[in-house]
Specification:
The protein has 117 residues and is mainly α. It contains 4 helices and 2 strands; from the N terminus they run ββαααα.
Length: 117
């Protein structure tokens, strides 16, 4: 089953403690976006283990943000985890790196606040 993560409902917003929507402005500088992204990566690496779906989504956004489109070919000797990871990343092909950074930041923020309760 191939799930296109770019079609999932999370856009460039996330909820704060007051349940008001905050936007990650598309007008922030690339440097500011990179700093927010690096901070989100640091925070994600300190989080407890997440569900497989959440880990795949974060992985796909991270790979798209840092590497761009997945150009790796399928290898028949890949284990199932590698296939799922590659499928998740490939589903974001065509997404701009900065949009992937925004979605990654937003997703990590959501996991920290809402996560798997």
């Amino acid at each position: 089953m191939f799930i296109n993560l770019s079609k999932l409902p999370i856009k460039t917003t996330f909820m704060n403690e007051d349940r008001k929507v905050q936007n990650i402005s598309e007008n922030i500088s690339e440097k500011e976006l990179d700093e927010l992204f690096e901070d989100a990566v640091r925070r994600a690496n300190m989080m407890p283990t997440q569900t497989a779906d959440n880990m795949l989504r974060a992985y796909a956004y991270y790979k798209q943000a840092t590497m761009g489109d997945c150009k790796e070919s399928y290898n028949p000797n890949m284990n199932i985890v590698a296939v799922f990871k590659q499928n998740a990343w490939r589903s974001l092909n065509g997404m701009d790196k900065n949009e992937a950074k925004r979605r990654y930041i937003e997703f990590i923020n959501w996991l920290e606040k809402e996560g798997e309760k």
